[in-house]
Amino acid sequence: MQINVGQLLKEHTGASRSYDIADISSHEKNSQHIQGTIDLLRTKRGILVKAKVKTQIEENCIRCLKTMLCSIYFEFEEEVFPQVYLEDQTTDADYENRIIDNNNILNLSDLLRQYIELNKPLKPLCKPDCQGIQII
Ligand SMILES: [Zn+2]
């Protein structure tokens, strides 16, 4: 999921853009279930990404191991920086995924993947009273 932020980076602090995730990810594989909005806010050093994301992931029920789709929803805010800015700083591993490349492309795929990972249900159940694997 990529957004060209070249224009926004030229604008003053406080400038913003809003995107519908469906519009920026429609051509990508495996993204048909991702919905929500991405707001970008120009900060002094970079861009603050505010995301509201709704998606569905495949999980296996912890009791019966059946594969099912789980809906998850999460919000996050992360500041991302242009490559040139980061090269001036002592490299912080934490920033690795949060860069805007030299063509002003902000790639949100890694961030989204991380947040999906963090927001996965800990104990997915196909139904609240799942009896588990039935031995006949
Ligand atoms: Zn189950």
Q: Can you tell me about this structure?
A:
The chain is α+β, with helices and mostly antiparallel strands and 136 residues long. It has one domain (2-118). 19% of the residues lie in helices and 38% in strands. The chain is built from 4 helices and 7 strands, in the order E-H-E-H-E-E-E-H-E-E-H. The strands form 2 sheets. It has a 5-stranded mixed sheet with strand order 2-3-4-5-6. Strands 1-7 form a two-stranded antiparallel sheet. A hairpin with a 4-residue loop joins strand 3 and strand 4 (47-60). The mean pLDDT is 87. The protein binds zinc ion. Zinc ion is lined by residues 61, 63-64, 66, 125-126, 130.
Please summarize what this structure is.
The protein is of the alpha+beta class. The protein has four helices and seven strands.
What is the number of independent domains?
Answer: 1
Radius of gyration, rounded?
Answer: 19 Å
Bound molecules: zinc ion
Termini gap: 47 Å
* Tally of alpha and pi helices: 4
Poorly predicted runs are none
